Structure of Bifunctional diguanylate cyclase/phosphodiesterase:
Amino acid sequence: MGHVPVEDALTGLPNRHSFLGSLRRLLQIANDQRGRLALMIVDIDRFALINAGHGYGFGDELLREVAQRLGQLLRPQDVAARIGDNRFAVLLPRVMNPGHVELAAEKLQRLMEPPFDIGDHRIKVALSCGVALSPEHATQPDHLFRLAERALAQGRQTGQRIRFAADSSNEWELSEHWDIEVELSGAQQRDELSLHYQPKLCAGNLRVCGAEALMRWHLPGRGFIPPDRFIPVAERGGQIKQLTLWALNVALRQANAWPHQTERLGIAVNVPAEMVAQDDLPDLIASSLELWGHEYVQLTVEITERSLLADPQRSFRVLSELRAMGVRIALDDFGTGYSCLAYFKDIPADELKIDRSFVRNLPHDAASADITALIIDLAHRFGMAVVAEGVEDLPALDMLRQLGCDEVQGYLFAKPMGNPEFHDWLKGWTPPDELSA
């Protein structure tokens, strides 16, 4: 006997129980045929407010109309269902590639763009969508469903309308990431997080011009968790915005107490790509500066090239607003990604940071030296300063000076330090004779 869908009484779509049966069946077929299947889970944003403002009858009619538009997306082999109050799911068997799924998700967003006319009211709604693919993300139905729901939650927290699940095919890795995600959610309240600071110095005279703030997490019973393990988990779990705001406020507050000279000291805070295109970033930073700003402290926001690629127009607008507030913008790890030379002249940035992979090989690799020279020259032509990170030896420092690099940071001068140690280091820093220009 074939699978008989059980309908949701309101929308006429299969209900949650029926849909989970379809997921198990179609996923088994995909696994047997070595095919690809996509699962999309979709929420109507702010649905509770719609019900509160217009009444539950209005909300029910809206759900029916959303279901009808959802049907316009489907191919004959696809399955859509209502799996919760304002939650829908779509199964897309036999998709060609992830790009095919992304096109389907974008088409769904376009289908919902025209306003809904319900009674005497016209209303626009927005959807959030979490996507997981088999076999890329999971091959078991419960696992695939959980990853799609997690992607949906992460997308809503980071302001992404469409969010794909992270690659978690390794079950042990998923379990470890889950443990880290759970522990990280309370790390701030348990006072397990701290900031370490690595000095930035003027390349010529090695005067201290600022520091980069780097997050550290000490988990009792496990010791220090490396940032390259917990930061990606925070990004996928929707916690990165909260952590970034914490770092911003702590860095500004602690920098206030540093021994300031007659010139301003810079404090650089890393801001993830997800936040750069969010319209509220300038307001959030303005609030932090209002609380902790100091006349001798210059805030720099460090971003990566990836921050500019997803939505350049919006990112440029947000970054321009920050610069208008007096915040400096630094483009980190320049040259390691899809270098944005096509719109380089328009980047609202004040400095470029040369990645350590080039700096490390400077003395004995002509290609790294040539690339570094080109980056410095290009940046200077557009009025940007250049910072080299990962400076670990005197030959590299000498070459950077010859090439006209403006600022340097690295183990040659100091490793990242906790705030008390950095405070003491600042008071006692005198460039050794062997490092003098």
Q: What stands out?
A: The radius of gyration is 26 Å. Residues 168-175 have pLDDT under 50 and may be disordered. The longest helix spans residues 141-158. DSSP finds 16 helices and 17 strands in the chain.
